[in-house]
C-alpha cells in the first residue's frame, strides 16, 4: 500500500489498490487515471478466470454519502471503462462503469461481486455528459447514471458485505491501456431520500 493522498473534492484519505501507469489531479475536482494494458477487475461466474490488476484510487467514507463524477475516456478497445468502485475485499466489491460494449457502444454497466461477479449491461450511453453516482443509504448502496437530461436513472440497488472503500478505477481488459478522466467530482454526506425519483 502506498502513502495516503488527498483529492480536494472528497473528504477521505485515498490510496491505490493497484498502481496506475500515470495519474494526476487538476483543479481540485478532476482526477485522471492511466490504466495499463490487460487491466481488469472481474471474477467470472463461469470460472476460473479472476482478474484484479486494474488501478483504483479508494478511501473510506463514514455514514451515508453520494459520490458522483462526469466520466470521459477514449473507448478504443472492448471493455475499456471508467468506473466508480466499492471495494470491501477481494471477494466483495462492486463497480459501476461507462464501458465499451462488444457491439462498440459506450454502455452503462454494473458488476456486483460476492465471491463471483454478477455482471449487467443496462443501456447504451452516447453523448458528452455521462455521469455516474454511487450512494450509501444505511446498509444499502445505489448506482445511478445521468445522461445529460438532469435525471438520475437508478441502475442498481443492492447490499454488499463488509465496509467498502469507495473510489475510482480505470480498466482496459483487452486493450493496450486507456486514460479515464473523472471530472466534476462531487461528494455529499446527505442521505439520498429516494433512490427511484431521479433526484
Automatic annotation (TrEMBL):
Stored Gene3D superfamilies: 2.60.120.200
Identification of the protein by name: DUF1349 domain-containing protein
Species, as recorded: Streptosporangium album
